[in-house]
Structure formats: structure tokens, C-alpha cells
Amino acid sequence: MIKVSVNGALGKMGSTVCNAVINNSETELIDSVDINSKNHKTPNGKLIHKDFSGIFSNNLPDVIVDFTNRETFINLSTISIPKGVNIVSGSTGLLDEDYKLLDELCKKFEVGVLSASNFAIGAVLMMKLAAVAGKYFDYADLIESHHENKIDAPSGTAISIAEAASVNIDKKYFQNIVEKETIKNTRGGSLNGVQIHSSRMPGRVARHELVFGGLGQTFTMIHDSIDRDSFMPGVILGVKEIIKKQNLVIGLDKIMGI
Predict the structure, then answer these.
(1) pLDDT in tens, 138-195
(2) Does 86 share its domain with 140?
(3) Selection from 182, 180, 217, 213 nearest residue 195 by Cα
(4) What's the CATH number where 139 sits?
């Protein structure tokens, strides 16, 4: 059994991860962490500590699953990697310096860390298909929608999709430059010429729609995460595979072998 702790266990993603770990025959949920815990317990009765010291005092996990934020993830990494604990993280917004630090820590302590912007299998496939299709089109727009409490825009997944769409092109996509912008920023942001538009509203979990345009045609890809369970097969796959690694792995596609 792979012993798993969850960082952010009381959050929407964290609680979903807890249940996924409990329901898998190869993983065991042990004590976890959430800064908002007041002696809360996981669904299987394990204690949720307010900080990392509680789970590192005894019964070390094999893997910590983290869905928090950049700062918390980096802090977690500097504490847990030297103790030989592997990490699977969906926290986004990491900087180049963060990846450099993670890479150095993984190599020094021979520990595996998976950092991925999205754990939905379909979203990962969308990134790969975007890389294939991008070089055949001149324009690209990306519309992404998430729940109203998401703190960043655009999403980490949207950035990954835009980067994938640009990876095989020699120049930026063309853009329509309006002569008159009656409402500022109506055209959204831009990454390598991919025009990105972000929507935040109740009722959404995650939706990404990528539209390529060329002479006389458009080509559209859409991926919807209907609920947070859509991420769990990828999370569990990451947990099972990262214990075999001794390095930093960026992106679930590397774990999937695509």
C-alpha cells in the first residue's frame, strides 16, 4: 500500500483527493494537513493537522498530494523532499526559479516530484493535439471558464494549452488588431499570439475551448471537467508512478508516456 497524505485536505480538491485515495485498493490515506483544521479528520478518521510537523513526526507518507498554491507548494517541497517524501502537485503559477529549486532538491535527495497544471486525462490529450494542429493554422483563440473562486487568470491549463499550440510554429499567430476598442481588454490577453479569454462564474469546474482559424475554416477543441472527480484518475496515476522516480517531472503527459 502506498501511504498518502493530502496537503489542503479540507479544500474542494483536497477532500476529493482524500476520497479517491481511500477508494483505491493500492493507496492508503494517512494523517493529512490543512491550515484551517481544528482537529478535523479525514473521511477514514485520520487527523488533519494544521501544519506539516504533525505528519512528519511519525508514520511518514510515501507521497503528499498538494492542491494549494505556489507558495505553500514550495514551502512543502523544501520540508518534505529532504525527508524522502515524494510529491504530486497541481498547484500552478510556479516561476522558473521554483522549477530550478525543485529540480535541484529532487536530484540531491533522489526523490520524485510531479508538478502538473491539469490532471484530467482529456485536458492532457488536448494539449498534445493542440501541438499537432497548431502549425496548420494562422489564428488561435482560447476561451477558458472556471468557478468563481479561482484566484488566477488565465488558468495554468490555459497557459499550457497556449504554449502547446505554439510549440511547433516558427512565428506568432496572426491577430485581429481592432481600430476601435470600445471596452478596454475586450480582446483578452495574448500568449505567442494565442488570444486568451477567461470567464469566472458559479456552476463551472473547468472548461477549455481552443479555436484555430485558417483560410475558410475553423477547428475547435473543447474539454470539460464536469466535476472534480475528473482529475482523480490522473492524480492516482501520478501517485503510483512518482514513487518510481528520482527527479522532477513536469506534466502528467510524461507519466502517461505521451
Answers:
(1) 999 999 999 998 988 999 899 999 999 999 998 899 998 888 989 988 889 999 999 9
(2) no
(3) 213
(4) 3.30.360.10
**Residue 236 sits in the same domain as residue 111:** yes
Mean pLDDT of 16-23: 97
Where are the extended beta strands (E) located within 110-247? Answer: 113-115, 139-146, 189-191, 194-200, 206-214, 217-225
pLDDT for 102 equals: 97
- Is 150 designated active site? yes
Beta bridge partners of 146: 200, 206
Please state the pTM of the whole predicted model.
0.84
Residue identified by cell 527527479 is 247
- Residue 102: strand, helix, or coil: helix
All three cell numbers of 52: 506539516
Percent of the chain with pLDDT over 90: 84
3-state secondary structure of 249: strand
The one catalytic residue among 3, 12, 50, 150: 150
Q: How many domains does the chain have?
A: 2
Q: pLDDT higher for 91 or 86?
A: 86
Residues 188 and 89 in one domain: no
- In this structure, are 131 and 168 located in the same domain? yes
Is 146 one of the catalytic residues?
Answer: yes
The per-residue pLDDT for 258 is 83
Pair (235, 203) in one structural domain: no
Dihedral sign, Cα of residue 21, residue 26, residue 81, residue 113: negative
Q: Which residue from 242, 211, 253, 250 is spatially nearest to 99, judged by alpha carbons?
A: 250
**In this predicted structure, what is the pLDDT of residue 185?**
87
Same domain? 74 vs 125: no
User: What is the domain extent for residue 87?
Assistant: 2-115+229-256
Annotated catalytic residue, options 46, 49, 146, 208: 146
